[in-house]
Specification:
Mean pLDDT: 84
CATH class of the largest domain: Mainly Beta
CATH superfamily of the largest domain: YVTN repeat-like/Quinoprotein amine dehydrogenase
Strand order of the largest sheet: 3-4-5-6
Largest sheet: 4 strands, antiparallel
CATH topology of the largest domain: Methylamine Dehydrogenase, Chain H
Low-confidence stretches: 1-72
Structural class: alpha+beta
Bound molecules: heme C
Number of domains: 2
């Protein structure tokens, strides 16, 4: 069945055709990037059960603790909230910076007003005549979302909002999308992969997450034997963090963070309220009372939840990146929290005000790791673009670029004492950088001292070092762990 094509549709089709042919090479690259996406640590999308806030995780009934899914505040325009939630949940994934389908971005007021390839998509006051509404209807050309029909209530909400002049409300876009119920899936073998591991603050123990289990190893004994092991009731633990006093361990997975008492492995509770994706990273304040949860929805957003875990209180939730957040780091003085984004950016947040204080732009692919130097105001990042960059925190300039540019350094960490920056790669290599100097001009080789770690045949993806940087541990996709002495790079036997 053919429909007469409107001239606008023709223009659009032509524009699309031209764009596609001019951009074949770009598309090939984009698809490679997508494949790289698919290999990121969060791919082993686990999945059982929709997240349900357990009583323990239900925030206290204070206004500050209201989860982001709560009803809009009285000052918000309900028409705007309803419509923008639809755009946020159904559209922005394909219409955002980095993925601008049809030349249209929908994440900000400015970009929405600008429209797409065929011009403006909004005619404020005239819902029926706006392309943004037309594309939602049955037979819309193009039809949006491409493989789905929105309900009449949803399309009416968009129409009513445009009729009302399409008022904007940035706070809606800043919140995580509503969690979708998830179907039960069989757990793939890759779930055994060590996605996270972490030395206790005093270095005497090493916590290793393997699938849904955590083992605690004794680092004072030969071969680092397992002295405790417990099930976390989680498909795959993605992230671990110890309290600075070593009394508690937190494990993050799909829409959940579990708290454990380390001396006896007693489960003390969990937090799931408001979480929508994979808890890809965790960080704790120096006092051990504030927990930052990186909640990642691939291609949709990386959200930060700031939680007072003892009182089960949510302080704030906000969108930190337009894609997953792969790593968090806290500065030695506790003033800054850094985030590594799959959107190629690293960011620095003020821990007191939660305000964004700096964005580090320069990686040409996902940022996989981030670490603070405790001696100088510097920050290191590692990217899927095969570079470790060391930034001056304030000027946001790159002081040094490390690595051989031939392999992806999948994880980095800076020892707490600032003496060593460590990186491990997807090809089983590792290096310890010390005395990192600001590079001058083209010269790169003299910018640091390098101690190579014994090579292993494994895809290394997680990393931790003791506070003095003397002992280094890495976890691999095949479930093995490796421990090295930093001084000579020698691999230590492990059981
Ligand atoms: C799975 C990805 C995807 C999702 C989700 C999606 N779009 Fe699109 N959108 C596209 C693609 C691809 C095009 C280009 C299609 C074409 O030109 O034929 C497009 C084009 C458009 C256009 C035309 C832009 C122009 O100027 O030509 C509008 C308007 C639009 N989308 C709105 C929406 C809205 C509203 C939603 C959510 C309800 C949405 N899209 C969800 C992929 C998507």
């Amino acid at each position: 069945m053919h429909r007469a094509l409107s001239s606008r549709t023709l223009t659009r089709k032509l524009a699309t055709w031209l764009r596609q042919h001019a951009r074949l090479a770009a598309l090939a690259i984009a698809s490679m990037v997508q494949q790289a996406d698919a290999q990121t640590p969060e791919t082993p999308a686990p999945a059982p059960k929709p997240a349900v806030a357990t009583p323990a995780a239900t925030p206290a009934a204070t206004p500050a603790a209201t989860p982001s899914t709560a009803a809009p505040a009285a000052t918000q325009n309900p028409l705007a909230v309803a419509a923008l939630e639809i755009l946020r949940d159904e559209c922005v994934a394909c219409h955002r910076p980095g993925k601008v389908k049809g030349g249209l971005k929908l994440g900000t007021e400015e970009s929405l007003k600008k429209g797409g390839e065929s011009g403006p998509v909004l005619k404020p006051g005239h819902g029926e005549e706006s392309l943004l509404h037309e594309v939602l209807l049955k037979g819309g050309d193009p039809h949006m979302p491409p493989k789905k029909q929105l309900t009449p209530q949803q399309t009416d909400a968009i129409k009513a909002w445009i009729n009302a002049g399409a008022p904007w409300d940035a706070s809606v876009m800043d919140k995580p999308p509503k969690p979708q119920p998830v179907k039960l899936r069989k757990m793939p073998k890759t779930m055994e992969s060590v996605l996270s591991l972490s030395f206790s603050p005093d270095g005497s123990q090493l916590a290793v997450a393997r699938g849904g289990r955590i083992e605690i190893r004794d680092t004072k004994q030969e071969r680092f034997p397992v002295i405790q092991s417990f099930e976390v009731q989680m498909e795959a633990v993605q992230s671990l963090v110890w309290t600075p006093d070593g009394t508690h361990l937190f494990a993050g997975g799909f829409r959940k963070v579990s708290f454990w008492r380390t001396k006896d492995g007693l489960a003390e509770g969990e937090w799931s309220a408001g979480l929508v994706g994979q808890v890809t990273a965790l960080a704790l304040s120096n006092a051990g009372d504030i927990l930052w949860i990186a909640d990642s929805l691939a291609s949709r957003g990386g959200f930060l939840h700031k939680v007072g875990w003892q009182q089960r209180q949510l302080f704030k939730t906000w969108k930190a990146h337009d894609d997953s957040v792969y790593a968090l780091a806290l500065s030695a003085d506790g003033r800054w929290l850094a985030t590594a984004g799959a959107d190629r950016l690293a960011r620095r947040w003020d821990t007191a005000t939660d305000a964004l204080s700096a964005t580090y732009e320069g990686h040409t692919n996902q940022v996989l790791g981030v670490a603070f130097d405790s001696l100088k105001p510097r920050l290191a990042t590692t990217g899927a673009d095969r570079e470790i960059k060391v930034w001056d925190q304030e000027s946001r300039e790159q002081d040094a670029v490390l690595g051989d540019k031939k392999q992806v350094v999948s994880a980095i960490c800076w020892s707490k004492d600032g003496s060593r920056l460590i990186g491990v790669t997807e090809r089983g290599n590792g290096a310890v950088y010390s005395a990192i100097q600001k590079h001058t001009g083209e010269q790169r080789s003299d910018t640091s001292k390098i101690q190579k770690l014994d090579k292993v045949e494994a895809f290394l993806q997680s990393l931790s070092a003791t506070a003095d940087g003397a002992l280094i541990a890495a976890g691999a996709t095949d479930g093995r762990i490796f421990v090295w002495k930093a001084a000579d790079g020698k691999l230590q036997p492990t059981e």
